[in-house]
Amino acid sequence: MAAVCCAGEWLVMSSSHYLIAVNVRENREPFVFDCTKTEQKPKEAETDESNGGGSQEEGSDLILTLTLSRSGHYAALTDDNKRLILFRTQPSWQCISTRWVVRRCTSLVFSQAEDELFVADKSGDVYSFSVLEPQRQGELKLGHLSMLLGITLSPDDKYIITADRDEKIRVSFCRSPYNIQAFCLGHREFVSALCVPAAHPEWLLSGSGDGTVKLWHYESGRRLQSIDLQQHGVSQSSDTDSEKPVRFAVSRIISSPDGRHVAVQCESFPSIQLFTVEEGSDGSLTPTETLTLPQNLWDMTFDPQGRLWVLLENKDTNVLLYTYTEERWKCVSESPDLQRVSETVHAQWELFKASIGAESRFRHLYKTNFDNMASYLEKKKERLQQQNQRGGKKRAARQPNRAAKKSKTENKSGAVSQKCSSES
Prior knowledge:
Number of helices: 4
Helix content: 10-25%
Number of strands: 28
Oligomer: single chain
Strand order of the largest sheet: 1-2-3-4
């Protein structure tokens, strides 16, 4: 699956095992990084991993997660080979370290101070890696009992907020993660997206496989609002079986730099739902409009100017750019930076082709739903039939035995009677 993020002057994309960075302010040569050509895992790291219980599976160079620091001065990615690769983007792009994680990662986030990089993995653990000491190994910070799907930090770096497959959102103290401040509970499926909106540092937005977006006061764990996206047209499906429930996951929630706008993306739907946060709001989002797209989107991001970039699964129309003017979002048709990004994606399209129609990363995370009563009655019917069949066989087997016993009893009775008669 392709991804895109933006910070500072860089728009950064990933697809397959490639990272592509485009400068949106200056006409500079794009930076392209190929994970297949980077440092391989040393033998001693493999030995340490086997001793520490890490997975021994053979991996690929597929990029799993990508993130930028708040200023855009640092970037990081992890791949399927369990490499954590750190870049410095100023004055030019440079790979400054390659480190190894214990298990495959699902989410990354830089601290606001840009001195630490937090990594969440499939086993439910969070590790902290130093940015200022790029060769230093990671430190285990906390663990969940199930797979982690999202991680973010409070704007003051006080709290680590983590989300897992078992519908839980945990708020932990960053400096002492064994101390849990709160849980945000209420989703009915895995929690797949987290976002702390810029204008409200006390709020948390979460998205889930249950098709809802929830707004929380995360420090207390109090839910402020729940939005069912089916009520905003996301549930439209081409599935001819109308009785089959439509399941979809919120794959991305992002906030504009000024905090006034929130964009929500749902996997496999060619649309973006937009909300506004009114000034002085005490805890609510207002739906404004739905952007209908010509193709399925891979990912989206806001840039520092508050413009919305959308990466599409289409070679010719591969990137769309939206700006908020006159109280609505409008698609920009001509822009030098849009042209620069679009031409880069078009020229590098071979790198993006592997992400077209990629399998959903949430497909195997849904709970298995079934009708308990119907299943129970069906199994009961089968059980009774089996019991009747076994009972019939036993009765049939007992008939000859009963006949033999009866004959033996009769013979014995006759012999006794004959003996009594002779004694008389």
